[in-house]
Design a protein that fits this description.
Blueprint (H helix, E strand, L loop, with lengths): L10 H8 L5 E3 L10 E6 L10 H13 L8 E5 L3 H13 L2 E7 L4 H9 L3 E5 L2 H13 L4 E2 L6 H18 L6 E5 L4 H13 L4 E7 L27 E5 L1 H15 L5 H16 L4 E6 L17
Parallel strand pairs: 2-10, 3-4, 3-6, 4-5, 7-8, 7-10, 8-9
Antiparallel strand pairs: 1-2
Helix pairs in contact: 2-3, 2-6, 3-4, 6-7, 8-9
Length: 304
C-alpha cells in the first residue's frame, strides 16, 4: 500500500509547516488608555526571525516551479537585512549559492546571520546602490536577481498566508491594518486579501518622517519606488518619527514583553495613534522581526 503520510524530513514539509502561522497578541498596557483593541502579529516567530521568511520562501519555490532556477545556481538580492537572512536560510535548505548586497550601516547581527547561513555578503553605501549593484551583477551573468521590489511572488506570499491568518485570527472583526513599507510586499498582499473580505477595512502604510532613519522602511525616490506598489491599495500613509519608533520599541519590550526592532516600534506607535482616534477599532499591526537583531545598535541601552 502506498504511504500517504507526509514526510516530516523533507525541506518542503518543514518550510510549508513552519513559515507563517504566527501568533496574534493583544497589547495589554500600551493601548489601555484607549477603548480600541490593538493586536500585534508576531512575525519574529518565523524560522529565520522575520516576516520576510514568507516572501523569501515563496520567491525561491515559485522560481523553481517555473524552471527559472535549480539547485546549485547562484541567487542575488539587495536587502536591508531581513529578506537577506530569510533568503539565505531557504537557499541553504534548497541548495543554492546566495549573494547578498546590503548597506554597510546595517546592524552586525544581520550581517552575521546571513553569513551563518552560508551567504556571501557584499556591502554597499546605500540601499539604492545595493539594488543597482545586484542588477549589474545579473547583467554580467553572475546569477539571478529575485528582485523582491518587483516580484509578484513577494505580494502573493502575503495574499495567500498573512492576510488569511489575520482575517481568521480576528474572526473577521479587523477594522484597521497597519504596516511599515519597505519593499511594500507585505502591505500589498495583505491589503488585497483583506479588502476582498471587507472593503471597509482601512489599510495604513508607514514611512519614515523626513530625516528619520528606520531600518527596513523607506521613503523611496520615485525612480526606486518598488514596482509591486499600488497606491490605490493603501488608504492612509503615516510618517513615523525615528525617535518615537525607537522609544516605542523599548517600551514594547519593557511593558509588553515583546522584543522587536525599530520599524515594529513605529508600527505600534502608529497603531496607538489610530486607537486614540477610533475607540471601537480592532487594529492589527505587523511586528516584523525580533529585537535581538538590534542589540549592537544600542537601541535598548537608552533610558527614556
Amino acid at each position: 500500500m502506498r504511504n500517504t503520510q507526509p514526510d516530516f524530513f523533507t525541506d518542503d514539509f518543514l518550510l510549508d509547516h513552519y513559515v507563517g502561522k504566527t501568533p496574534l497578541v493583544r497589547l495589554q498596557r500600551l493601548a489601555n488608555h484607549t477603548q480600541a483593541t490593538v493586536l500585534a502579529k508576531l512575525e519574529g516567530n518565523n524560522p529565520a526571525g522575520s516576516v520576510k521568511d514568507r516572501p523569501a520562501y515563496n520567491m525561491i519555490m515559485q522560481a523553481e516551479k517555473r524552471g527559472q532556477i535549480q539547485p546549485g545556481d547562484t541567487l542575488i538580492e539587495a536587502t536591508s537585512g531581513n529578506t537577506g537572512i530569510a533568503l539565505a536560510m531557504v537557499a541553504a535548505m534548497r541548495g543554492y549559492n546566495m549573494r547578498l548586497i546590503m548597506p554597510a550601516a546595517s546592524s552586525q547581527e544581520r550581517k552575521d546571520a546571513m553569513r551563518a547561513y552560508g551567504a556571501e555578503l557584499i556591502e554597499a553605501a546605500s540601499m539604492e546602490e545595493a539594488r543597482d549593484m545586484a542588477l549589474q551583477m545579473q547583467q554580467e551573468g553572475q546569477g539571478l536577481v529575485l528582485n523582491q521590489f518587483g516580484n509578484p511572488d513577494n505580494v502573493e506570499a502575503h495574499y495567500l498566508t498573512t492576510g488569511p491568518e489575520i482575517w481568521q485570527q480576528t474572526g473577521g472583526k479587523i477594522t484597521h491594518f497597519v504596516s511599515a513599507m519597505g519593499t511594500t510586499g507585505t502591505i500589498m498582499g495583505i491589503s488585497k486579501y483583506l479588502k476582498e473580505q471587507n472593503p471597509e477595512i482601512q489599510i495604513i502604510g508607514l514611512q519614515p518622517s523626513e530625516g528619520s532613519n528606520i531600518a527596513g522602511i523607506r521613503r523611496w525616490p520615485q525612480e526606486y519606488l518598488p514596482t509591486i506598489f499600488d497606491p490605490s491599495r493603501v488608504d492612509r500613509i503615516m510618517d513615523i518619527p525615528q525617535i518615537e519608533a525607537e522609544k516605542t520599541a523599548r517600551t514594547l519590550a519593557r511593558q509588553e514583553g515583546i522584543s522587536a526592532g525599530t520599524s515594529s516600534g513605529g508600527a505600534v506607535w502608529a497603531s496607538i495613534k489610530i486607537a486614540e482616534e477610533n475607540p471601537e477599532a480592532v487594529i492589527v499591526c505587523i511586528v516584523c522581526d525580533r529585537g535581538d537583531r538590534y542589540l549592537s545598535t544600542g537601541l535598548f541601552s537608552v533610558e527614556d
